[in-house]
Amino acid sequence: MADTKGPSDSKDFTVTIDEVAYESESTSPTPSLPPHPPPRPNLLERCSLFIQEWTPFTLVLSYFIFSTCLYTICSEGLIAVFWFVYMATNFYIASMTVFEAFLSIIPCREARKAVSKLEASGWKFPTKDDELLILDIIIVAYLPNEKDIIMDRAFYALDKIEYPRDKLRINIVYNTPYPIEPLETELHQLAAKYSELRVIRVPNSKSKADNLNYFFTLNTGSDVIAIYDCDHYMHPHGPRWAIERFKKDPKVDIVQGRCVVFNSGENFLTSMISVEFDKIYAVSHPGRAKQWGFGLFCGSNGYWRTSLIKDLKMDESMLTEDIDSALRAVSRGAKTVHDLNVVSYELAPTNFQSFWKQRLRWAQGWTQASIRHLELSYKRVRMEGLERNFRVRFGLISLLLIREWSYYLVTQYTCLVLSFLITKFPSTVAELARLVYFQYPVSQWLLIVSIVCLLATLWITNRAKSEFATPWMIVVFSLLYPVYLIINATIGLYGHARQVINYSSWNPTARS
Q1: Rounded to a whole number, what is the largest CA-CA distance in the chain?
Q2: C-alpha 115: how far from its chain's center?
Q3: 346, 395, 476: which is closest to 103 by C-alpha?
Q4: Under 8 Å between Cβ of 416 and 83
Q5: Are the beta carbons of 474 and 461 closer than 8 angstroms?
Q6: Where, per UniProt, does this protein localize (predicted)?
């Protein structure tokens, strides 16, 4: 492990015209913010917030009640049509999922070969240290929410990252509605001790996007910018693996790494989220990139060419500014690769309330991004000199349209089953199984194929699982997968309802 250098023995970045402003932000807190938390809203404002908060719930509940009641009065012939449509659509989604999973075997195998080759060489990376790109790592923090973990992450980054210190700058970019002492003073004292560390308090910021956009206005002389949420522990070699991808292929614009949940053993919820993240980051993302020809920046543990991210910036009006920026990069023809060796470890929500708030924000953000960028799926050319082929456009249809529609298909199937239970309540387990799964011959085959696809996907996930997930977690996740799909679809509908009423609150995930 490389030694952490102090200000006397570590080179700094090239002096730029913005150096004075940059240094002033890194050495002292901004004094203009209020010294105390803002006052609570008055009664009228609280009533307005209450109505806005519960309107989506009312809309989604009404949707489930109305749909279930509607199926109870439908004819047998119409029910058969609905049943076939839902099962056929589920078969399509399951088959696309397993196809992505099989394609993910290739990048997973390549990642393991790369590690084996490097291990055989004595962990000597292909690129010489003096030829590496200059890297800015941004750790984005909202201090009232992450005040208990920020110092730990700062010390970890300074001590563990294996990258030449003359080509590295670690930037803690944070916002807070009121001063937090002695924490802020300790952060700035740490920056004075380590020349590779910069602590920047962003004035008038209310979101992660604001923090990032402020940093993008600073001229630090970097070639690549890496973005991390505050709860992440980046693997010591993660930044080096990412930069090697840029050096290997000059056409690469973004390297998205794998995010692993490291608190999987805390409770049942975190164990299931751990398996879900392995499925998403080790299977779905790299598999989709192989299948459709484009990758996506996922918000954290992502490395950007500095020129591209400074040009695109983040849209603070979007709840998931990361997905929006990723799709805008796709619209420009940017090349995004998913590298399974660029690993970071993050915290999963430890209670259902935090999980629910986080996923609702993600769901509404995906809805916003899908509405804004759906045109990418049917427009061949958006800018001069760029053409998206049919493969990419169909992949975007699957991502932005079919994925959003799937929430209705899953919940409609759920309502259909509920209507059966109301009108033909079974007296035995066998009757329940026949009622739910085997009413129509064609549905038997569609169901069996869908189950095979699910098992194949989870088998591949098991092979690619992280060290924090166990085979038993995979088994439990598999058994509960139908419940997972229903919860995920319900959250998706909730996100749609929030978008309809223009719900705009930004709720950061609680950290401890």
Answers
A1: 81
A2: 25
A3: 395
A4: yes
A5: yes
A6: Membrane
Whether residue 280 lies inside any domain: the answer is yes
pLDDT tens digits for range 483-512: 898 999 999 999 999 998 887 765 666 555
Helix axes 481-500, 471-479, angle to 10 degrees: 70
For 402, what's the count of Cα atoms within 13 Å in the CB-facing half-sphere? 16
Residue 450 one-letter amino acid: S
Residue/partner pairs of 261-266 with CB below 8 Å, 24 or more apart: 261/345, 261/346, 261/347, 261/348, 261/466, 261/468, 262/233, 262/345, 262/346, 262/347, 262/468, 263/347, 263/348, 263/350, 264/348, 264/468, 264/469, 264/473, 265/468, 266/348, 266/350
Over residues 22-51, the pLDDT tens digits come to 333 443 444 444 445 556 667 777 777 777
CB 164 within 8 A of CB 146: no
Joined tokens for residue 102: 């099989």
497 domain-assigned: no
d(CA 140, CA 168): 17
Question: Residue 511 in contact with residue 230, Cβ under 8 Å?
Answer: yes
Identity at 205, one-letter amino acid code: S
Read off the pTM.
Answer: 0.84
Residue 335 forms beta bridges with which residues? 252
Cβ atoms within 10 Å, residue 44: 8
**Which of 320, 333, 375, 324 minimizes the C-alpha distance to 509?**
320
In-domain check, residue 313 = yes
Q: Token pair of 273, please?
A: 């989220």
* Domain membership flag for residue 420: no
Name the DSSP class of 1: -
Contact at 8 Å (CB) between 214 and 183? no
Query: How far is Cα 320 from Cα 493, in angstroms, rounded to an integer?
Result: 17
Counted domains in the chain? 1
The burial of 436, by beta-carbon neighbours within 10 Å (0-12 exposed, 13-18 middle, 19 or more buried), is given as: middle
Place of tokens 């990258």: 163
Which amino acid, one-letter code, is at 38?
A: P
Q: Which domain holds residue 149?
A: 127-392
* Residue labelled with tokens 């060796």: 341
Separation of CA 48 from chain center: 31
Produce one character per residue of 86-107: b if its CB has 16 or more CB atoms within 10 Å, e if not: bbebbbebbebbbbbbebbbeb
Q: How many residues are listed for the chain in this entry?
A: 512
Helix (H, G, I), strand (E, B) or coil at 17: coil
pLDDT band, very low/low/confident/very high, at 14 (cuts 50, 70, 90): very low
- Which residue type, as a one-letter code, is found at position 73? I
Could you count the other beta carbons within 10 Å of the beta carbon of residue 378?
Answer: 11
Q: How far from each other are the two terminal CA atoms of the chain, in whole angstroms? A: 28
Tally Cβ neighbours within 10 Å of residue 66: 11
| Amino acid at the residue 417 | V
